[in-house]
Specification:
about 230 residues; alpha/beta; Rossmann fold; EC 3.1.1.31; hydrolase; 6-phosphogluconolactonase
């Protein structure tokens, strides 16, 4: 069914190959954008799973000064907190991070105001060149969670805002790019590992985005990078 939707499938045999392959794909897409337009716009996911990929990406030789980087989503915490996705990127992209043009989502005003501020800044970045998504076992992607009152609206390519303030399942505040930003990307990548997430993905093909947000992205031009084994 994924093939019928125009979704590409890339499967790798090991977590190391998964990280390296994803990094090569992202680096190639950034080079293409740099060659075409002189700059590249990239949105990355946080969490534990992307760490080997981030480390592999930082090893690629690119004109990093012309790469604009933001997050797909962020916890509403400052970058000195352990759960901060910005802190994660700074640590694992350390060899190149200070050369990038960085756009944080967290600003420290309030979740709602930070969403407005980040959205205004990212308006100049549209369309994005590359987005790397992840997926939770509940089918959420970015910080777009099942059952949120506005999740159907936020998942749409025509969502009014580029960035929204949301709540995670534990009611902690988050900031997330919306479908308006995420669907704009020329290259849309989803990285998942393990049998459990594969089954969630398969189930998402038959579910509504409001109940399983990743379902909103299971169509061309999405490219899924899958590894049967988790790191």
């Amino acid at each position: 069914m994924l093939r019928e939707r125009g979704v590409a499938w890339v499967e790798t045999a090991s977590p190391a190959a998964h990280a390296q392959g994803l990094a090569e794909t992202v680096a190639a897409a950034l080079r293409e954008a740099l060659a075409s337009r002189g700059e590249a716009r990239l949105a990355l996911s946080g969490g534990r799973s992307p760490i080997p990929f981030l480390q592999a990406l930082a090893c690629h030789v690119l004109d990093w000064e012309q790469v604009k980087l933001t997050l797909v989503d962020e916890r509403w915490v400052s970058s000195d907190q352990p759960e901060s996705n910005e802190r994660l990127l700074r640590r694992h992209l350390q060899p190149v991070f200070d050369r990038l043009h960085w756009q944080p989502l967290y600003q420290g005003a309030s979740p709602a105001q930070d969403a407005v501020t980040a959205g205004a800044a990212l308006l100049k970045w549209q369309p994005l060149d590359v987005v790397v998504l992840g997926m939770g076992l509940d089918g959420h992607t970015a910080s777009l969670f099942p059952g949120q009152p506005q999740v159907s609206q936020w998942l749409q390519p025509g969502a009014g805002a580029l960035c929204a303030a949301t709540l995670a399942a534990d009611a902690s505040p988050r900031l997330t790019l919306t479908g308006r930003a995420l669907h704009s990307a020329r290259r849309q990548l989803l990285a998942i590992s393990g049998e459990q997430k594969l089954q969630v993905l398969i189930g998402a093909l038959e579910r509504a985005p409001a109940d399983c947000p990743i379902a909103a992205f299971l169509r061309a031009p999405l490219e899924i990078h899958y590894c049967p084994d988790q790191a």
